[in-house]
Design a protein that fits this description.
single chain, mainly alpha
């Protein structure tokens, strides 16, 4: 099946985005310091790029 690239991105991202939203809302509710936002953003960006990245010669 020939799916568009954006469909794969949405499929990969919805869970990390949901988890990030939960972390951000929890951090706001319990008034955690700003570095928590940065740490969660870096963590989820790392997870995202690791899930998308494919090494040359490797099949996805």
């Amino acid at each position: 099946m020939n799916r568009p690239f954006w469909f794969d991105l949405v499929y990969l991202f919805w869970k990390p985005c949901l988890a990030m939203a939960v972390v951000e809302i929890a951090a706001l509710m319990i008034r955690l310091p700003g570095f928590v936002f940065g740490a969660s953003a870096v963590t989820f960006a790392t997870v995202f790029f690791a899930s998308v990245y494919v090494r040359p010669g490797e099949k996805k």
